[in-house]
Amino acid sequence: MALGTAAGLAAKSALAIGGLGKLSFIPALLAAMAYFNYDLLDPESRPFNQKYLRQEYDFVIVGGGSAGSVLANRLSEVEGWSVLLLEAGGHETDISDVPLLSLYLHKSKLDWKYRTQPQDTACQAMVDKRCCWTKGKVLGGSSVLNTMLYIRGNRRDFDQWESFGNPGWGYEDVLPYFKKSEDQRNPYLARDTRHHATGGYLTVQDSPYNTPLGAAFLQAGEEMGYDILDVNGQKQTGYGWYQFTMRRGTRSSTAKAFLRPVRLRQNLHIALFSHVTKVLIDMESKRAFGVEYFRDGEKRVVYAKREVILSAGAVASPQLLMLSGVGPRQHLQEVGIDVVQDSPGVGQNLQDHIAVGGLVFQIDYPVSLVMNRLVNINTALRYAITEDGPLTSSVGLEVVSFINTKYANSSDDWPDIEFMLTSASTPSDGGTQVKRAHGLTDEFYNEVFGSINNKDVFGVFPMMLRPKSRGFIKLRSKNPLDYPLMYHNYLTHPDDVGVLREGVKAAVAVGETQAMKRFGAPLPQQARAQLQAPAALHRRVLGLPHPAVHHDYLPLVLHGQDGTVQ
Ligand SMILES: Cc1cc2nc3c(=O)[nH]c(=O)nc-3n(C[C@H](O)[C@H](O)[C@H](O)COP(=O)(O)OP(=O)(O)OC[C@H]3O[C@@H](n4cnc5c(N)ncnc54)[C@H](O)[C@@H]3O)c2cc1C
């Protein structure tokens, strides 16, 4: 019976996720999850998709993503308020729960599949020179597709927002709210009660699975003179293990964290497959009083007594404002929309924390996450039964570091580059899903990664933290179902080129450390011993054994590429 159910589930999920043909282990994974009653251990089921809606609610929230899910939860805490959450997508799937598979969700039905306009300054390796802007079209929004890294902003970022005239947004103001939501499952981190808390809705845990590369990244950081620390703690500049919004080794989306526990509240309605097309605004008072939306092929209206809240994400929120007559007057007139409010800033000031992909370091030992070696029925069973194994790795993201290039003031603890240090990279899946997710051309992929397809590698992705380039979004037409035009303008500010160039140099330097070079030659006895002791390193750095370090790679370390024992 359980297997029968699982087969149905497998078929359904395969439909939902594009490009799963090569993943023959998926049915086994789903069958194992059903057989071992995986879901039953999580008592909270998915929220109901409310069929009949009222005419009016106190609050109408547009978009049930990261922000909208939290808002729906917190507002409906007040019993006297009625809250409606309208979401264009449906429910997340069992596959979107699996951390290693998050890239398989890009370009699936759960993704809006936005693409930027072609420009000459960046995205040159992508088909049509257009970058893919993955955005979740699903309850939980982009938190269902993202890589679950739990990193708060730098304190200086918040303080800067406050200094721009936003009281209440300084670091000390927002910290209690981060803590209110947090359920930190790493006991060592939880001890730091100034920065962490337990008992909140959002589960934060270490990855249940790391490779020996993870410990080596930390050693590389130490070798380069950085502290090893909790990047969400007192200081950010340095190296540390990633923390993840995961629970029991699976994704803890905001839908799971914030909506499932409150799904029985009578004053909260959640309507899926409800695509909002316009905010209704009174021309005289300029007050929003409802929204128009499509559901089941029909145009409908719902009214808001108190507020309409736009939480449709960085692309759809400005799009909806403009469709509703709020935006730059000239642009609205161009596309034939009646102007309710001339707001020149709507759609402007677009910022993105871009990273350089392609810094891939080939290694000589089979210790990295090569998909065709590690994703199989055994690992599927391990995921379903013991909630760990390679499938719980968030696409190989193991260690994070925040560093200062020469353009940042290093005494400030306000780094300008973040490194994502990974035990997998673009070629680790043999040119299938990563290439597809990012929209890389065949020509580029073959030239850059062709010779290292499915080879053992690690990656260092330098990511720019405070870009100065600014893009913008404008409407393609007044048809609300047309995607807007997105101009990224990446690297149009010369300072960004400088910072990213320094980031690349620093990333190459990581590969030059002794800690990482060990992976490029037969391991001497001493290095082998160090690799076998990542837990010891963790104990030294963080004060307790790292639950995330797995030793089952280690026998592999003793073998050369040809299988001979070294
Ligand atoms: C690939 C990827 C990896 C990422 N990795 C990380 C990470 O590791 N850590 C991290 O902190 N952040 C990460 N992010 C960023 C993070 O996920 C987003 O910043 C965050 O989810 C944005 O939240 P939001 O509520 O603004 O928008 P979203 O979460 O995108 O939610 C918007 C919601 O509105 C809905 N919607 C849109 N238009 C309409 C409409 N017209 N009518 C009704 N509903 C609508 C959408 O379907 C969606 O559910 C990542 C993002 C991506 C894409």
Can you tell me about this structure?
Residues 136-159, 313-327 form the Glucose-methanol-choline oxidoreductase N-terminal domain. Its cofactor is FAD. One of its GO terms (molecular function) is flavin adenine dinucleotide binding. Pfam families: GMC_oxred_C, GMC_oxred_N. This protein has four domains: 46-92 and 138-145 and 247-310, 3-Layer(bba) Sandwich (FAD/NAD(P)-binding domain), CATH 3.50.50; 116-133 and 207-244 and 353-466 and 491-566, Cholesterol Oxidase, domain 2; 150-203, Arc Repressor Mutant (Orthogonal Bundle); 312-349 and 471-483, no CATH class. The protein has 566 residues and is of the alpha/beta class. Mean pLDDT is 88; it is low at 1-21 and 530-566. Strand 1 (56-62), helix 3 (66-75) and strand 2 form a beta-alpha-beta unit. The strands form seven sheets. A six-stranded mixed beta sheet has the order 11-2-1-14-13-12. A five-stranded antiparallel beta sheet has the order 7-18-19-20-17. Strands 5-6-8 form a three-stranded mixed beta sheet. The protein has 19 helices and 22 strands. Helix 2 (25-35) runs parallel beside helix 12. Flavin-adenine dinucleotide is lined by residues 62-68, 86-89, 134-138, 141-143, 145-149, 275-276, 311-313, 316, 320. Flavin-adenine dinucleotide (FAD) binds next to helix 3, strand 12 and helix 9.
Examine the secondary-structure arrangement and name the CATH architecture of the largest domain. 2-Layer Sandwich
**Tally of discrete structural domains:** 4
Give the bound compounds.
flavin-adenine dinucleotide
Quaternary state of the chains:
single chain
Total strands: the figure is: 22
CATH topology of the largest domain: Cholesterol Oxidase, domain 2
Mean of pLDDT: 88
